[in-house]
Structures are given as structure tokens and as C-alpha cells.
Amino acid sequence: MLTFPKRYADTVARLRVPSGFLLVAAFAWFSQPSPASLAVGLPVGLLGLVLRAWAAGCLAKNQQLATSGPYAYTRNPLYLGTLLVAAGLAVASRSAGLGLLFAAVFGLVYLPVIQLEEQHLRSLFPVYPEYAARVPALWPRWSGGSAGGSFRWALYVKNQEYQAGAGLAVGVALLVWKALR
Description:
Layout: H1 6-30, H2 35-56, H3 77-93, H4 96-124, H5 128-134, H6 153-158, H7 162-180
């Protein structure tokens, strides 16, 4: 993975949420969905949402290093889920430009944020380097891991993951409305 300067990573971390609003506006304006693009893209987005939900239900932020559930296969299942949601919405939108925009934002905003979070986890959990040596940063390794652990609804709610579901629902509603008009 590329290494970003800390100053840059700190700046884009602060801009992550405001840039999300710009992405929503671009998505609403430029999407041109069809029934076929919805049929292909929405399952991919839903898969990403399910991965995010599973990860959020296994994550006790800053209290315990998450190494089970999806964290046994990738250190960043929430971001992988975000990538899948964005890819699904881009495909469903039938806009190559939106796909390129989402990919650029992921590369220029989310990858530096991942690095900042990993620095934070290294300072909190002395065993993090050992975990990082075993488990890939983003793309899952399906061998050698064991999902183990258990999903907890209380963590899902505490981590406010339902907001991602609400966001996807709004995006889907917009795409369906645009496809049917």
C-alpha cells in the first residue's frame, strides 16, 4: 500500500465527511441507471453493506483489537465494505465517471485514513504488528484465518452502522426513481 505523508492524511481525514456530501450530489446528478444496471450493481452494494454490518458487530473500538469475524481475513473490512458499496452504486448508476470519481476518492481519501487508523491501533495495542503481519490490509486472504468470534447487535448499534444501511437505502431509492421515470 502507498504511504501518504501524515499531514496529508490528517487533512483528508477531516475532509472525509464533507467530501461525502459532494459525492452524493454528483451521484444524484450524474447517475443514469437502468433496470439491468440496478440488477448487477445493487447486489454488489448490498454485499458491501452486509460486510460492513458484520465488521461493526465484531468491533469494540479502542477497547479490544478486533481479530475475529471479518477481521480474521482483512484488517479493514469496514473500508472493504465501503469500497463494495461504492462499486455497486457506481455500476448501478451506469456512469463510468462516477466509478472513476469513487475510485479516486477511495485512493486519495480512504487509503490515507486507513494508515492513520493503523498508526493509532499500533499505539493502543502492542500486538498489532503481529496481527498486521498475518492479515492483509484490505484485500482478504481466505486461507489461514478463522472467523471465530461472534457478532453482537449491541456493537452494531453502538458503532451506528445502521447509518450505512440508511445511506444505501436512500441511494437505491434515488436510482430506482431515476430508472423508472
